[in-house]
Amino acid sequence: MNEIQNLWADFRLPIRDALYFVNGDSYDVTLASDTPGGWKVLAPFGVSDMLAREPDWTSEIDGLISMELGQGGFLWGGDGSYGSEGFFGRLAPDRSLVWAVFFMESNPFEDIQLFGEIATFTSTNGSEVTVDINDPRNPIPGNG
């Protein structure tokens, strides 16, 4: 198992604004309310390198909202160890991770709206992030 799978088994994620995939691929992300989707996926980084420098820099996550997917699995969102943290992601039917996004300053995610393969996650402070649930790296088209 890789680092993300090990952390997920304990319901933990690294404390970093990032998108994490079950295969270990990770990308820096940022909230960006002025862009379609409300966020940007940035450069890839190595979780192994990050955790080697800061092994305890992880947050316990707790789900506040979930939504079953017709094709199996579900979407899940909630909070981290600190009040400002939030996460959301897609899980397989056995609750194993497909992908997850963690934000240090979004507040907990408490609502999910699903439109086909596009989901919008909303946090307690009103932050909205819209993603393609099959691959959140895919850009969300703008409104004109």
TrEMBL record:
- Which superkingdom is the protein from? Bacteria
According to UniProt, the name of this protein is Uncharacterized protein
Organism classification, top ranks? Bacteria, Bacillati, Actinomycetota, Actinomycetes, Kitasatosporales
